[in-house]
UniProtKB/TrEMBL annotation:
Residues 38-98 form the Amine oxidase domain. This is Amine oxidase domain-containing protein. InterPro entries: Amino_oxidase (IPR002937), FAD/NAD-bd_sf (IPR036188), Flavin_monoamine_oxidase (IPR050281). GO terms for biological process: polyamine catabolic process. One of its GO terms (molecular function) is oxidoreductase activity. The lineage of its organism: Eukaryota, Metazoa, Cnidaria, Anthozoa, Hexacorallia.
Length: 224
């Protein structure tokens, strides 16, 4: 880590500590940043870079980093928050890709086509015809419908509505499982709460299993 980054992180830690120690003596500031996750720390960094120091960073946990946090269990590093690097071939993730190479981060490339679906009795009910239909025809229809709506400047809609409009209905148990795996799990919420325009961004996903922890990507202090 560079001296500048080290100094910045030390300053953030001191700022958060100062809030806890001086809350009774000073309660006003021009800027209040709620949370010391990546967004909060980036906001604080931006303020400091613009010579604004009259601010507080308030964090409710006993560590900073937000969703980037890990614990040790029986000699293993267990991530309790962020664990993936999504869409590694997108421009937005270029800094993470660079950091991954620099640190020789270990992990697993995800292969979403290598799945087995079992029922409540453990029986293999994998239906490759349905899986291929969803992965190819349905995703193609989604992309076409997204492009058509955007070209016509039509407003966004819930993903559930978009799926129904292109003909996808999850009636059978295996269809519900497939939908959960492809949509709910991927977006961390059901299609009813997901933007239709955000479905199925293309790119590789990398699951971090490095014993040094996901925090290698950011070098954020993980405890106070």
């Amino acid at each position: 880590m560079s001296q500048a980054n080290s100094a910045f992180l030390a300053a953030i830690c001191l700022l958060i500590l100062s809030v806890a120690s001086s809350a009774e003596t000073r309660k006003e500031a021009k800027v209040l940043i709620l949370g010391a996750g990546l967004s909060g720390i980036t906001a604080a960094k931006t303020l400091l870079e613009n010579n604004i120091t009259d601010f507080y960073v308030l964090e409710g946990q006993d560590y900073i980093g937000g969703r980037i946090h890990a614990v040790q269990f029986e000699g293993f590093t267990i991530e309790t928050g962020a664990n993936w690097v999504h869409l590694l071939n997108d421009e937005d993730t270029a800094p993470l890709v660079k950091r991954k190479k620099e640190t020789e981060m270990s992990g697993v490339w995800c292969n979403y086509s290598d799945v087995i679906i079992r029922d409540e009795n453990g029986q293999d009910i994998t239906d490759w015809e349905i899986i291929h239909t969803f992965d190819n025809k349905i995703e193609e229809k989604i992309e076409e419908f997204q492009w058509t709506r955007k070209r016509r400047n039509m407003p966004d809609i819930p993903a559930r509505v978009g799926l129904q409009l292109i003909g996808w209905k999850s009636n059978r148990p295996i269809e519900k499982v497939l939908e959960y795996f492809r949509l709910d799990f991927e977006h961390a919420k059901p299609p009813d709460l997901v933007s239709f325009y955000q479905l199925f961004s293309k790119g590789k996903d990398f699951f971090v299993s490095d014993p040094r922890g996901y925090g290698l990507f950011t070098k954020i202090c993980t405890s106070l």
